[in-house]
């Protein structure tokens, strides 16, 4: 049994399969062709933080595969009344076939997975957001072909998305140019990468964007860090993706943002709503890649 708790839980070979499979699944969805590979299977979705895309993409995706979903939150389940995560895992995984969790510390999802009889997917933790980077790379491939050998500029917080990009770069053979304010750097140990070979750190975000094939950013204040919001608003002012940054990137550079976005904070409206931006494809592709992922975790490679 396989879990998907961080990006490096799958191999480069498995990603090659998943990207091809997601393209097929997307095509079938667009042409109204039935694809019920998870008929009668149930996905449990556990949300300890808010969500729009993750909720809708997993829920709609599971229905499209012929399955159904159970939606749980901290507030409306015994998780919020201190039932141990290990006990919750044992119970939920006896009644459902696959589990998606959005929570705080990575250790929480690891404890759940250790006591689960069924595959567990990380729907975002403080440390990682693997389903999002899976969708982002699929989107890059759709628009530009293979990401191997390319350069991705990360502008902003050294957060769960940044960590996941570092893992993806190490695994899939591309380079990340990371620029964060001082005090918000990526940490190689937290990111879980073996070396610093696949990323370069820049103090100036404009220099990080120079020549990049993809420029990407995220909110200045992630969920769970709201108490730091005022300090972050001050620290991050120079880390707003601007038209000037896109102008020094490769001429055909893409702009991505996992969303939700704050125009005028981490990105200027003219960038996210401009010609380089593929953020709506990126959001839609969450559903297609996660369908491929759920199918793979439950059934392995399918012809
Ligand atoms: N990008 C993303 O995970 O969005 P939600 O928080 O809306 O799920
Ligand atoms: N880094 C953001 C991503 C939201 C999808 C957060 O964790 O809130």
What is the strand and helix layout of this fold?
Layout: H1 12-30, E1 42-47, H2 53-64, E2 68-73, H3 85-95, E3 98-102, H4 106-114, E4 120-122, H5 130-144, E5 151-155, H6 160-172, E6 175-179, H7 188-191, E7 199-201, H8 205-209, E8 214-217, H9 229-235, H10 243-248, E9 254-257, H11 269-272, H12 279-299
Unreliable runs: none
Give a short account of the largest sheet.
5 strands, parallel
**What is the class of the largest domain in the CATH system?**
Alpha Beta
CATH superfamily of the largest domain: Aspartate/ornithine carbamoyltransferase
Tally of extended strands?
9
Task: Explain the overall architecture.
With 303 residues, the protein is α/β, with parallel strands linked by helices. It has 2 domains: 7-129 and 283-299, Aspartate/ornithine carbamoyltransferase (Rossmann fold), CATH 3.40.50.1370; 132-279, Aspartate/ornithine carbamoyltransferase (Rossmann fold, 3-Layer(aba) Sandwich). Helix content is 42%, strand content 14%. The chain is built from 12 helices and 9 strands. The protein has a 5-stranded parallel sheet. A 4-stranded parallel sheet has the order 2-1-3-4, sandwiched between helices. Strand 5 (151-155), helix 6 and strand 6 form a beta-alpha-beta unit. Helix 1 crosses helix 12 (279-299). The longest helix has 21 residues, at 279-299. It is globular, with a radius of gyration of 19 Å. The two termini are 20 Å apart. The relative contact order is 0.16. The model has no long low-confidence stretch (mean pLDDT 98). Bound molecules: phosphoric acid mono(formamide)ester and norvaline.
